[in-house]
Amino acid sequence: MKSISVAATLAALATSAFAEGDVAAGEEQFNRQCVACHVVRNDEGEVLAGRTARTGPNLFGIEGRALGSVDGFRYGDAIVTLGEAGTTWSEETFVAYVQNPTGYLREALDNNRARGKMAYQVRDEQQAADIYAYLVAVSAE
């Protein structure tokens, strides 16, 4: 019986490649690293996080949304192609993308010419996970 519970625990850990992020730490990191380019604005137009930045797309409701799909935002071709192929934002996708946008797109599309328009990179994996947790939490409010 013990071996079954160990196997189940290992399987659960394998399916969760990233630790759940810290919402409070994510808010701090978002306000430090993301607000210059991004805003979180709900469907009613209320700004929930950030200012009125428009360099990057609105991050409201990011979880489960197709990559490159915010209406009215001009994305690069690579991220749109990936979204049209069915790739959606998850913690794993977000963390990989924000740590190296162009590298992520090149690997995901198997295309060394793919380029991301986001120049900034979040250097720390845990900070990226924290930012994602914050975005999911603020979108749920």
Describe the structure.
The termini are far apart. Helix 4 crosses helix 5 and helix 4 crosses helix 6 (125-140). A hairpin with a 5-residue loop joins strand 1 and strand 2 (47-50). Helix content is 48%, strand content 5%. It has a single domain (19-140), classed as Cytochrome Bc1 Complex, Chain D, domain 2 (Orthogonal Bundle), CATH 1.10.760. By secondary structure, the chain is mainly alpha-helical.
The CATH class: Mainly Alpha
First CA to last CA: what distance? 42 Å
Number of helices: 6
Q: Which shape, going by the Cα principal axes?
A: globular
Counting helices, strands and paired strands, the structural category is mainly alpha
Largest sheet: 2 strands, antiparallel
Q: What would CATH call the architecture? A: Orthogonal Bundle
Q: In total, how many domains does the architecture comprise?
A: 1
Fraction in beta strands: under 5%
Radius of gyration over all CA atoms, rounded: 16 Å
Number of strands: 2
Encode the helix/strand succession as letters.
HHEEHHHH
Q: Record the strand order, biggest sheet.
A: 1-2
Task: Give the SSE layout.
Blueprint lengths: L1 H14 L7 H11 L5 E3 L5 E4 L26 H8 L6 H9 L1 H9 L15 H16 L1
Antiparallel strand pairs: 1-2
